[in-house]
Structures
1.
Amino acid sequence: MRPFKYSNAADPAAAITAISVNADAKFLGGGTNLLDLMKEDVMHPSELVNITRLKYADIEKTSNGILIGGTATNAFTANHERVRKQYPLLTMAILAGASAQIRNMATNAGNLNQRTRCSYFYDVNMPCNKRTPGSGCGALKGLNRNHAIFGWSEKCVAVYPSDMAVALAALDAVVHVEAGNQEKRTIAFADFHRLPGSTPQIDNNLKHGELITSIELPENDFAAHSYYLKVRERSSYAFALVSVAAAMSLDGSRIRDIRIALGGVAHKPWRATAAEKLLVGKEATMANFKVAAAAELKNARPLEHNKYKVKMAGDAIVRALSNAMNGVGYGMNAGLEAGV
Amino acid sequence: MSETGKPISRIDGRLKVTGKATYAAEFNQPNMAYAFPVRATIAKGLIVSIDDAAAKKEPGVLSVISYKNAFRLKPMDMQAQMKAGAAFLGENLLPLQENKVHYLGQFIAVVVAETYEQARTAAYKLKIRYTEEKAATDLKSELPKAKKPKMFMGEEAQVNEGKTAAPLAASAHQVNHSYSTPVEHHHPMEPHATVAVWDSTDKLTLYDATQGVGMTSAIAAYFLGLQSENVRVVAPYVGGGFGSKGLWLHTLLVAIAAKAVGRPVKLALTRQMMQTNVGHRAATIQHVALGADTAGKLGAVRHHTDTYNNLTTFFEPSGKQSLVLYQAPVREVTYNVTTLNRGTPTFMRAPGETPGTFALESAMDEMAYELKMDPVEFRIANHTAKDPMKGHDFSSDSLVDCYRIGAERFGWSARSMEPGQQRKGKYLIGYGMATATYPGGRSAASVKVTMTANGEVTVRTASIDIGTGTYTVLAQTVADALGVPVDRIDVKIGDSSLPAAPLAGGSQTTASIHPAAMEACVLLRKELAALAIADPSSKLNGRRLDEISYADGKLVITGEEKKSDAYADIMKRAKRTEMEACATTQPVSGPGMTVPSALCTPRETPPEQNSDIKQYAFHSFGAQFAEVWVDQDFGTIRVKRFTSVQDVGRIMNEKTARSQIIGGVIFGIGAALMEATEYDKRWGNPVTRTLADYHVPVNLDVPPIDVHFIGKPDPHISPIGARGIGEIGITGVSAAIANAVFNATGKRLRDLPLTPDKLV
Amino acid sequence: MEDQPKFPDLTDAERRALEELLPDEMSEIITSGIKRRHFLKLITYTGTGLLATHLLGIEQLMARSTAVAPLPPTVIENGVNVSFQVNGSAQQLLVDSRMTLLDALRERMDLTGSKKGCDHGQCGACTVIVDGRRVLSCLTLAATCEDKEVTTIEGLADGDKLHPMQAAFIKHDGFQCGYCTPGQICSAVALMSEAKNGEASYVTSNVREAGRPMELSEEEIRERMSGNICRCGAYPNIVDAIREVHGDKAVAQVWQFADGTI
């Protein structure tokens, strides 16, 4: 880690000011990804401002949903009674990620600012346009088994690693940010993260000095039919090969509304809008799920080593939808014994 | 023997659960500085220049050392090194002596600073220019350049080349396939670390994470030009090794750094360095062919391995088990070895057998299907009680019992031969099994036993406990050999100044040091008896030595319980506060490296106590059984339960022994399902760089594991009757799992690890 | 560090060893301080079995450094003053802003029980408990610990009396090399309160059923302990140890304990 100035922000305005005046300064939340990258010398901010003591660590009910604090930890959020009861998809997604220790440290805002785990990004001796613009993409013609099948560019084929954000994408979350002079704005979740295009070094549309104060989840009627499915190379404590956040509301066996988002397949949480469109108003049947999954995956563009992800993602959509249809508590989370 | 075998808890357990067991990097010294090594960023070439101006300006920097200014080590000279016991380096390369780069990640400079943070930051600032040469980075494309090595560690490497072609062709049933295994890394939880303290210009102490204190001392002394008794290597606790903790460049590097700055220096490797600098198991491509007759008898076994080496002659000997298992009249084991520019391949838990049993035991399963025979019965039908190459009897032979007991405990009879028959919901369920084997090694070793008049006993030997239980089982053996309780016995190991013992490798520690410990106790008892016999006030006065036995801290006339004399009383009357005995024992035959044992008088184990007079073949055997559940859509595999039945001779401590086997099986689950280091052939860099990419099993990956020991003492390996147990647990595991996956899905996977992408 | 006039000539490490290892009656023998050479002699000749089993530990402590001298402030860059509690005692440190809590414990405070396994949050060996929650000290800057309460493996036992989780790990052989062990135990101790709070995991069958204390199945324990890697492969034994402390009376060992040894 290179030397940096450290301070503890007394209030949000002070934190924002400190960051705004220094282009190399960063907010410090749980540090679980930032310190990791600083030790790798991938990131070397000259200043860190600790924001974990700011008053954005709670979860509040609003007239139209809930506001989840930006500095609340992932563990606190996942286990908050209101989240568990009303937004079990978010709870399941958070609990699918990392380890208990990391979830106790990582903040919600930090989760959205996570950077890719692409090995070429992490290795400062390798080319990577995200880390060093113009140096090339090591993964494009390299080992890209874990990389994107949607939305990638010649500049970058990395995937975004968060599980939590996949659920937030499905739940149409809104990101609340604050900038200098107490300026506030909101960013729809779909507009928060970016595809790599020609500027893969920019992960998301947050501007320097903007602080994520909270994440808003609008009310929904998906609580009874939600499922977060994660496929990985070992059974826990590993990033997703493919993940699916699925939630639906049902009128009898008819799908009233539905949300599907994929993780591990693109530079941002991948909202499966093609599949959603095909399913709204249709019967919740395996046959319909399969048709919708196939429609979504039709546009996949796999790389040399990740063709398996296309089939896996399709099957994962079907499985997640079927488990969601059967109700929370049904599915792989119940362990092997259930066999479903 | 009342203590030996008992499942007592580890005597070092309390220190380990309270955080007080001290590992190499924890020997902080006054005025200590920190070193951070700099790694080459090319796979092959020459360093043209090193610009250290910026690094030197960094706060706290004490020194930047490279080939330009490093202390000159004595050059490599295999003959002289052999004589000095200093031949066994991880890689035949010395740090910072020349500008040549042999692999990406090689240590080419080191920064020493006041703090760890400062050393690391300054290390980023070195500017190094290279002339790059074309590196060999890919096994398959380099195979045309491969050579056929004549020898592997003193044994013929190419056995019966070409001799199986005719019998295979004539066989009624043939199986002929290629199996591949990836690069695997040891990744012990404790990263390699060394603290170097120069006590004077010719005296050095190294606190080192090593599997062999004697070996490290000899090598460091040789290259630094010191007397080996002046290099003390201390390693009371070592956080796992699995073959990786031999001597690598960093140990010499830190000694150079400490010399340069005139202060104690600590160097702990990062996890990323563990992927490039401390060895790995090389990838293999194995071609196995089996021929069998219509009755299911094997007629020929052929096992060819393509692999690579770098900077040593070591290569992965994956044909080993194919020279030992099964009755087949003709067998052929051959190797093609090329050289790659990547960190040096080395010993890793069951070197050879781990990838080798994957290939052979998968092929055996394929042949069982070909023959429509039960895989257990097929193996039993081809069992051999003799070493097929040497013709010697195995020193103990319970493999058939392992199969039978394992099948019974596992419930093998519920298996359906036809694949894909058993399912639960989305899961396809399958059973698979394989044979486990590993050689039983024993080396010379010396042990000193000291007793005080207060009845405290201390056992000293330069052995190591890398988690294997050496402390505990040694106390148990000495407790029995002296008739004193375990809690009066203090075990001192992990220090090169103690009597010599072999390194903790090759599953030989127990078989080597316990006979010496026992012999030292015999000597001590004899000396006590001599005092008593000569002492008019002893009840043993004037009796013959052969009449005297011992129990409960006393010498006793056999059959006359009341005629006894306590050790403490004998010593007090003789005005002795402390007595000691030291013994060196070595195997009469069988394998084993000889260790110089200058500190103790060598004593041949008396022939009547060691029936290893004629030649035996020393091998442990076992049977592994796995049940897997395969997700039909995603190809994710979970091992649902596992049974391991092992014949490893006498069990010294049932609790620690069981843990060793469980640990081996879990290592095997990792090799089967997830472990692989992948390299980008354009640059030769590992793309799996850390524990985030190099997956090892986590708790949720591991099912209940049922372990059963045959437990019959091996009457030939030593009077103790125990063979090693650290490595056999991993052997056969990946084949048992792959065979179970075939049984579940009908898909035969011949390329490890069995990641989901291969089943989708 | 704290002043203890009792054994003025001993280093902190030695004094702690002595205090932990000597039963009360032994302490009485030592009336007015103890010299270093007496200490060595004492531990060599004392006849208690308890001490015999611990000699090794003492010897090691003796071989180590004396208390770590404070760094000259000149070598500390971007210094941050931190006041926090470690294992119940107040600590004040001036740290380089880059220094992690793990390095502060290991390099500055002589608390080497917390281990550095990967330094990147990928193995769990550095797990400590901060304000009641298990966290990774390798990804925690020491500077952020102002006012926090840190519990490390060294702080779990009550004097000579091991924490039940420590005792269960010994009994069930929940370790081999011992390097991941402090992290495993800290993690397991914190897990007990997470279960009591009714917190869910990825394998919890219905996360909507919130709030009541949970009885952890083996699968639940395995998932919740998956952030602590053990390369020796003690996982099944770790699960048994945790089940026992969690109150599962059914945890049987496969061995008979004829001698009552744990």
2.
Amino acid sequence: MTNENILEIKNISVCFDGFYALTDVRTNVKRHTVHFFIGPNGAGKTTLLDIICAKTKPTSGNIMYYPEGREGIRLTGMKEYKIVEEGIGRKFQVPSVFVNLTVLDNMILSLKGHKGIFDSIFGKPSKEDMENIDSVLERVGLADKKDVRAGSLAHGQKQWLEIGMQLVSKPEIIMLDEPAAGMGKPETFRTGEILKDIKKECTVIVIEHDMDFVKQAADIVTVLHEGKILMEGNISDVLADKTVQAVYLGRGGE
Amino acid sequence: MKDMLKKQGSNICFAFIVILLALVPVMFSAGLMNSSTVLFLGKCIAFAVVAMGLDLIWGYTGILSLGHGLYFALGGYAMAMYLKLQSTGGKITDFMHTGGLEELPLVWKPFLNLPLSIVMIILVPAVVSGVIGYFIFKSRVKGVYFSIISQALTWAAYSMFIALSPYTNGNVGITEIKSVFGSIKGDANRGNMFLLFYISLGIMILIYALCKFLVGRKFGKLLIAIRDGENRTYFSGYRVSRYKTFVYVLSAVIAAIAGAVFVNFNGSITPSQMTIAYSITMVIWVAIGGRGTIIGAVIGAFLINLCEYNLSSGAMVEIWQYLIGALFCITILFFKGGIVGFVKDHFPGDKKAAPAAQAKTEEAKV
């Protein structure tokens, strides 16, 4: 029986020059769920993602990752490209697609495997890879934009392209930092639907402020506050919680 | 037809330049050109080659190296050492005598035969740039810090070459050498000169083809990806530092090949080819021609040098340096894409490369 948790975050603390960005954070992420981390600014949400993908080193604690049908892997201390190879993808807060390349090129660069120099000089994406790209572009609604320069896409489309770039690398976990930031209502809703669709294949970890979006897509919500976990549960429990309302929701969702 | 022009614009433009250059010996034979112009155009071929290498690393990968003169000179010295030994018949040179050496130093020994010298032309800069690149890129030094380090290293190498005068003839450099094909001076040796010219042209074509091939593959897209979002590329699972080191070594080797070609036409090599000023001049060629296009590097190298050749005599000699500096600033501030970028923006699709080629033709004819 495989572990039902795909990620176990164990007692993570991070200290930046005496300031604790995270204190003893302990939580699990379940397979094939959309797991939201919410909380006021400075609660440590982005830092937590940074630690998972090795952009930041934790002061103490570690993170275990259990890929489907494989042994557990200790992520703490690994190099970022290794973590990507193991199947954990990350989308940053600012849309960071390669603006001078076409949508298709962006997708090709994100394909799983073939990351060596020799491969990229002489290799060509296989037919399955191209079909995979087509189907992902279809799902994120960019099928007709293949040859468009990524820099000329609208903001929302860039975000979707980036989600697509994550998907095409067939990760087990996708981490999204504010995917709906700067989007209008219909685009946000669309993004939510995309997330619900992709959790069939992988686990999605999301940081978000927009409560309607959280309600629409979340399976589990973890509320962070000042570097600590305030509470965790499904969305209706979290919304009903008095402390959460006081520190977070009470401020008009910010 | 329009579509073909749009896609093949730079190749057509390059073919145009090649044809013009191929006609140079013919024009010389017909008495339309003097021999120093031919030698000068030969040097321009070398400059175009080094510029293409720089375009790979700066235009595509976004790493501004202000020290490629070092690799240019390393290739140049390696070639010159072989040629010097050819002219002394393998004996020790005058400057070694003066420096107190009794026999040929070990570092000169590989340059006794041509195949080994060619290996050294490629190997020495590859190893030097490989070691430098490995450590610099592994520790993720980038941007302006890299530029400063590349300058400092060039300066250090320059000082070293001057200090080691028994081996390098210091400030004077290695002079009084013939080309690989023998003397190219005078009417009797016209055949040698033409051979050298066409071989060099062939090297330029090969390097162009290599660069075009590389940037057309996924490799080239990845270089652009590194330039536009290095962190993002790491998180797409690429070992960016390896790619950077690879491109750095590649462009260093291309610079060294260019240096070797240059020496054949120039008949000497001095440490001044290793200076920071010289390295920056190379960057200016690429900037003005147009970054990230390969063809822009070729156009820039020819255009700037032809201007310099024609203008830097007489009254212009004083202000030429200021002029080129001003031109560089204007390009960086207002025409980021250089000449090629300007043409692309103003003639989208149709006839895009033609005007630039036209301008070049006028220059070449002067």
3.
Amino acid sequence: MSSELRVEQLRKVFPTTNKAAVDDVSFTIAAGEIVVLLGPSGCGKTTTLRCVAGLEHPTSGKIVIGGTVYTDPQAGVLVPPRNRNLGMVFQSYAVWPHMTVRQNVAYPLKSRKVSGAALDKGVKEALELVELADYADRPVTQLSGGQMQRVALARSMVYQPQILLLDEPLSNLDAQLRLRLRDDLRRIIKRVGLTALYVTHDQTEAVVLGDRIGVMRDGKLLQLDTPSEIYNQPADLFVAGFTGATNVLDGRVVARDGGGGTVAVASGEHLIARMGDGVAVGAAVRVASRPDNVGLAPAVEGPNQFLGRVTTRHYQGTQTVYQVTVLGATIEALEVGSAARHAEGSAVTVALPPGVCWAYPV
Amino acid sequence: MAASDTIGVTRAWVPWAWSGFLIAVLAFLVLYPTSMLLIGALTTTNPVVEGYKLADLSIGNFLTVAMNPNVAGALVNSLIACGGGTIVAVAIGLGFAWVVVRTNTPCKGLIASAGMLPLFVPPLVAGVAWSILGSPKTGLLNLVFAKTGIPLHLDLYSMPGMIFVFGIYYAPYVYMFTAAALRNMDPALEEAAEISGASALRTMATVTFPLIMPAILSGMLLSFIVMLGIYGIPAVLGAPANLSVLTTYIFALTAWSPPRYNTAAAVAVLLMIVTGLLVFLQQKVVARRSYTTVAGKAFRPRSLNLGPWRFMTLALAIVYLFVVVVLPSIALFIAAFRKFLFIRDIPSLFETKQYGWQHFTKMFDNPLTITSIINSMKVGIITAVVGGILSFAIGYTITRARVPGKRIIDVITTIPVAIPGLVIGVAYLWAWIGLPGGLYGTLWILALAFVARFIPDTVKALSTSLMQIHRELEEAAWICGRGTLSTIASIVLPLARPGVVAAMTLLFILSIRELGSSLFLYSSGTMVMAVQLLGYYEGGNVGITAAFSLVQMVLLGGLITFTNWLTRSAAAPTAAAQTGGIARSG
């Protein structure tokens, strides 16, 4: 019985800083959808999640779950967390160390006055879902970090909550375990069909887990789109940079053509890039592109090819990162494969495919 | 081959000799007196008259004493007073911890630091202050009640009186433990319960409370142990009502004529057994994995918005502080500066002509006052120097050195934790009184007894600061060609200096306020402050007693401020150990 979540013009000002931690954030998550809020620390993503949970009281705005208003400070509506029927997985796991695995998972059911066979069945199913059925009677303190996190997951899903909230659930785990649990998480959430709001600062985690990703910065939701759109059509320079488009070239628009235009960069050369409708001829812009989209010595002729020189080469085993001087600036290019083809100091043709160069007004 | 002779080869016997030396010193300080105490408990010979004889060693002697109804009565009184006191301390300490850590009560930082003040008041001073306030006939509070028509009459010379004073003075102990546990608890643990659908009350009962239970239990047992060894409070409040507890009973036995040293030793052994059991229990509680420190990360504790109720909690905290800090201070001031403590009515309390320095003048006219202050300072310095050096040697050996017998050294060092001060006093009495020309009657016996009594605290504090010095710092000095001693002198000691200084000042403070073990070891030439204060109290002069209490409090306050100033840059654990050390010693 997962539900739709609607957040409307959410705003949260902490009295101590007097700065809006969450600033006019609105979004809707369809029933059964996973949305990941992505952003650097302090961007307001966790505060947004905690407002949905009812653990934080927003200054204004509305939170509607399954058609019912749960938070609306202006109307004096503020349902306490215990009556929201939400599941939440915490960054620190927050499994209760004085209880066994079974007791942890049974706790929310007992709060709901479930007992007897129904209780046992619910706990058993939840533990099977996270593959911890054999550990039911262990004290949680004897589990590894990954197992504790799965206990936390079972505990948050055992009562079929309307929405599952996950607050950086993988950040305390080591890298390898993080990769495995990341895939497990999506599979489990999808199998149960839960609506999920997931918070992280890790972009690869966001891409793998989310049906849609919302990028936040300074309390504002900058873009909410599918992972492919976030990567290929970042809404602004920050989203572009945060998701890895680290090559930035300064320039000025000299011509417009549909969804794109021509930009004159520092060296005077012309670069074709995509840009929003609001960018007029003559505007100062920054053109962002991803190092992995930069081609070196392409086989075929095409637009946006320039002559450059390799200044440094960082061989990384399965890939090589080059710093290339081109268009009056230095950009990075990434070459996949264990064979590095270009030597330092060599001249190369640099291709910046117009479809993945985005110009943003400064 | 000749070259190898010139390269220093580590001599194999050195570590053995060092361990042997430390064990010998510890045996002299701890094991020998304790064994003599046990022998004393099992014999009937008088060590002063007959010297030490092992001829009539029998468990029967100990059992005869243990079965004595007076002893049983004292034991029961001890358990009731300390048990009751512990309950009061837990109620106050837990409540105080919750208010300070978990609510938005105003001025809670100030409240928290003021709440620790009772820890620094010597128990005898606390007892004296409360006898001035609450004695059934002349108590100041009774006077105020009678004159203002409040139908209340206090009698602190009673079991409830002892329980009350024990409880309010040892509440900070429970507070220290539980506040730390509440502060270190991951707030997500409680939030997870709320998200799971639990009410605030259910969250508290099923998550918060079970999680801090080990801390509560630990603080509870420790305050019980400390109360069990306290002499000052029951001596002042219990004696007038003929209520003896184990500590006062032991002292009474040695004050009889002729002194009943064997019986005293047997009762002391009984007290040691009870304390030892409790310490064992407490260590078990501590050894169980503490829930609250699992994450090892700093949390912002959840603070409950109490709304207007926060002024209620503020008021409660102020009432507590008023009762434990302000009232006793007022009592001591009035008694110390007023010519006669007989007070006709309330307005006469404020007549300035009734006040003056006469008690102070009279007190300093008594040569014993100055002698006792000077002696206390001397004993304090000896204790600080001897104890400081020994603690550093032991601390370094336990944490760093590669020598045999580290475990034995560690164990012997820990033994005094289970021995109340008063029992150490009886043990040292037994160890030296029968040896003519020995330590008995010198200041050294007091100092050595204090070193033995406080060595677990100082070694622990020093070990903590030594462990913070990374091993590689020392190894780097070795690689540079320094020897062990040279490395200690040039690297370890300078880095550990704040810890060493803190440990030594702690020893100084503890030894000048120590009453329990001094009682049995002073002689007319070696009077110390704590015993002199008891003398004034028992001499019946409340004015001089209060005046001398104030002098001691000012001295202690100055010393503690000075130490805090010294250690403000030192590692936090040292400061914490210091508070802990003072608390353990009562």
